[in-house]
Specification:
The strands form four sheets. This protein has an eight-stranded mixed β-sheet with strand order 8-7-9-10-11-14-15-16, with helices on both faces. Residues 1-37 and 743-768 have low confidence and may be disordered. By secondary structure, the protein is of the alpha/beta class.
């Protein structure tokens, strides 16, 4: 049992109550002492409402009228509190804290007594101190309209209940909307007011717990311009807000100026203070009414569904529509919350009766159970029983299902509405007990101005990676050409072997010809390897470099070795025999290959090539009507790289260039040798010319087309195939033609110019060289005899 100290009464003596309205119903009026002519036991419910003092007085009187209606229906209902009669004792708080505290004192001390519970509390700023004081007397309070989240604190407000949910419920509605529509990124903007700030602190925590992203959180007092600018900068598309009407006008005026409106933006705001047409009150604003209408078009509002829409019979036995008709109300307002609040009190008292009869509240001095009429403010057990029964209340009222959660908050239906062309339309209902939204419109109808698509919550880019491989058509063409080239090489090799006994083939060094053919085969193979997917076969990065370098050296190295032999023979001014065998030429080719092998081994061991993915092209395009979704397509090419690729490539190119330069020099030097079977200088020169020209063209072009692998492959492969095929045709074509035309006899007269010694000619094989030597001796003998005959003729003369 708690005793209130005497000085507490003094503290509560703040002013006098402005008015006391004693409402009695049914059979007789109640006197100041609480006497009644009714046979039923009177039960008193305190009532504190703002009945004067400005804007809130209209709401106060509305609440009072509906509370009186509930009292009348309860007293006329034989199924509830049958032996009791409810009386409402109401005081005017004037919407003022000091007056309210004085009124609380009157409710506690002034007759009739005792007040079992207190009904009232409309303005949150007034309700909070009032509830703190009522808790000292263990008085249960049921408020119809106070929504401050602070009142849900069970430590400071253990006896507070309300039939209108707090601002917390709008958090659950916002999160449910985001859940159903797939939004993960939000921004918040709210007025600096305890009612809103506490709720938004909780919202921010929930956003983090749900792994959502809070792009920015902004609060403001008077001018929201800077805050909206930061929201604009954050690229937020879904904005959760809360503010009173006067601030809402400023918010949406600035939003209009910053283009924070339209199909790609969604505002979610409690619409309790923003009823139909609120934007028409644009006096003193820098925006016109039309601009405000444009800015708020599409706004999603949330408010308690104050009146049942199902037509279901309520606990009073009447439907919500019938109650409105009886009350002759043009504007329904929130009267249902007062009506259901009184019914909540009555149901809780009725359910407490049985528990009191069972002795849960204790016993009187005569041994009988304590009843409701025995209630005193010091009866803590009775208060706890009644509080427990209020918590368990569950019935269908004029505002829909009525029940309270563990914090004394109403669990009801929240209407979700949307401003569409200047008119609110219902798009869904949120059940705060189940957490489920009953959507009454399809998303494509809700967001019809977005083309029927749900707006995205944040501009984003869809990353698409596309691996660019050589197209099948290009690869097929190139591999076909390379295959034909390989077949041609095989045919030429077979021809060279089969006709190796023929003089024209013997004199052209068939063994070195085979080396040239083998080198060309390797270069044809490079065309095929270049077109394969190096990402799947990284070893190709090493193989293709080796094949190209070795193949080039074998082809042109053997070619230039033959040319070097002819050069040495025809520039030999000595009369002694010069014999250069094929083995010596193979040795020369081996030396050239050694240089390749050294460079390649150093490259592969010191700086091995590897496959690397490179983005060669990026294409961006908007794929939604708002331009918020961008598709970025990256073309990725897998290429062979090494850290010093340029340096290694330059070393190989420089070496090959020197080789070509050496070959060009030899070709120039033997250009006047007229022995067709020996001298291929003209064809070699053409081959060198093709390689040099196409290299100077192909290399820069391939570098310029580095980001276009298909074009690069097509050009490089075409040039490589052309050079190889041209070389094969130039070197072996004439020989094939001469062989199949019936052969050729080596010139009977060996012609030389520029001081070349004809007798020093030696063919490519030892047998051919012997014949040349015999011819040489015969010519020398013939020359000697001619000289002798000429001398004898002179002597006779």
């Amino acid at each position: 049992m708690i005793h209130v100290p005497k000085n507490e009464h003094n503290i509560m003596s703040i002013g006098r109550p402005i008015c006391i309205i004693l409402v009695t119903f049914l059979m007789s009026s109640l006197g100041a002492e609480g006497e009644t002519g009714s046979e039923k036991t009177p039960l008193y419910i305190g009532c504190i409402l703002p009945l004067s003092g400005g804007y809130w007085s209209d709401i106060g009187y509305e609440s009072l009228r509906w509370a009186e209606a509930a009292i009348a229906d309860i007293n006329n209902n034989t199924d509830i509190l049958f032996d009791y009669e409810l009386h409402l004792v109401c005081n005017d708080s004037q919407g003022d804290i000091s007056v309210t505290l004085s009124v609380v004192k009157s409710q506690v001390y002034d007759p009739p007594q005792p007040k079992l519970m207190i009904f009232g509390g409309v303005m949150s700023t007034v309700t909070i101190p009032m509830s703190r004081v009522l808790a000292l007397w263990h008085l249960i309070q049921v408020s119809p309209l106070a929504t401050a989240p602070t009142l849900s604190d069970r430590v400071n407000f253990p006896y507070f209940f309300r039939t209108h949910p707090s601002q917390y419920v709008y958090n659950t509605v916002r999160l449910a909307i985001c859940r159903d529509l797939g939004w993960k990124n939000v921004a918040t903007l709210y007025q600096n007011h305890e009612k809103f700030s506490v709720a938004f602190d909780a919202l921010h925590e929930s956003v983090a717990q749900l792994n959502m992203t809070l792009l920015t959180s902004e609060s403001f007092d008077m001018n929201p311009a800077e805050q909206l600018a930061r929201i604009k900068k954050s690229d937020a598309r879904i904005i959760a807000g809360a503010f009173y009407q006067d601030r809402a006008l400023k918010v949406f005026c600035e939003a209009y100026k910053l283009d924070l409106y339209g199909p790609k933006y969604v505002w979610m705001i409690p619409s309790r203070w923003l009823k139909q047409g609120w934007w028409n009150d644009a006096v003193g604003m820098t925006c016109t009414m039309e601009e405000l209408e444009t800015a708020i078009d599409g706004m999603i509002g949330m408010d308690l569904n104050a009146w049942d829409i199902t037509g279901r019979e309520t606990i009073s036995g009447k439907t919500a529509s019938e109650l409105v008709t009886e009350m002759d109300e043009e504007d329904r307002g929130y009267g249902s919350l007062s009506y259901d609040g009184i019914w909540s009190i009555a149901v809780a008292l009725n359910n407490s009766l049985q528990r009191f009869e069972n002795g849960e509240a204790g016993y009187r001095g005569d041994g009988t159970q304590k009843r409701l009429r025995d209630f005193q403010y010091t009866e803590e057990i009775m208060v706890e029983v009644m509080k427990d029964e209020v918590s368990k209340v569950s019935f269908y009222g004029s505002s829909g299902p009525v029940s309270f959660n563990e914090n004394g908050e109403r669990q009801g239906i929240i209407e979700i509405e949307q401003n569409h062309g200047g008119t609110y339309r219902t798009i869904g209902y949120f059940n705060s007990k189940t957490g489920i939204i009953d959507w009454r419109m399809r998303p494509e109808d809700i967001f019809i101005k977005s083309g029927g698509h749900i707006p995205i919550d944040f501009p984003y880019t869809i990353q698409v990676s596309r691996i660019v491989n050589i197209s099948a058509s290009i690869f097929t063409v190139m591999i076909s050409m390379a295959t034909i080239g390989l077949i041609f090489c095989a045919c030429v090799l077979a021809f060279n072997i089969r006709h190796s006994d023929k003089r024209i083939i013997k004199m052209s060094s068939p063994n070195l010809n085979n080396v040239i053919i083998f080198g060309c085969c390797m270069m044809y193979a490079c065309v095929i390897l270049y077109g394969l997917d190096h990402s799947k076969y990284p070893i190709l990065c090493k193989i293709d470099k080796v094949l190209l370098a070795i193949g080039f050296t074998l082809s042109f190295g053997a070619m230039f070795s033959k040319t070097w032999r002819i050069y040495k023979i025809f520039t030999n001014k000595k009369t002694t025999k010069m014999t250069i065998k094929d083995q010596q030429l193979f040795g020369l080719v081996a030396v050239l290959l050694t240089v390749d092998v050294v460079i390649l081994l150093l490259w592969l061991l010191v700086d091995p090539p590897y496959v690397s993915a490179q983005v060669v092209n990026i294409k961006r395009e908007a794929i939604d009507t708002n331009g918020d979704i961008t598709r970025e397509t990256e073309d990725i090419v897998y290429r062979c790289y090494s850290n010093n690729k340029i340096q290694w490539s330059f070393a190989l190119f420089a070496y090959k260039g020197l080789l070509l330069l050496f070959g060009a020099f030899l070709t120039f030097q033997i250009r006047n040798v007229k022995i067709a079977a020996l001298n291929d200088s003209r064809y070699i020169a053409l081959s060198v010319y093709n390689v040099v020209v196409l290299s100077f063209i192909g290399l820069p072009v391939s570098l310029m087309l580095d980001d276009k692998p298909q074009e690069s492959y097509a050009i490089v492969s075409s040039f490589l195939t052309f050079c190889t095929t041209t070389t094969m045709i130039l070197l072996f074509g004439p020989k094939i033609v001469r062989v199949y035309r019936g052969g050729i006899v080596v010139d009977s007269q060996l012609q030389t110019t520029h001081g070349m010694n004809v007798p020093s000619v030696c063919t490519t094989t030892q047998s051919t060289c012997s014949k040349c030597q015999i011819m040489k001796r015969e010519l020398e003998e013939t020359k000697r005899r001619l000289e002798e005959l000429q001398k004898k003729g002179q002597d006779r003369e």
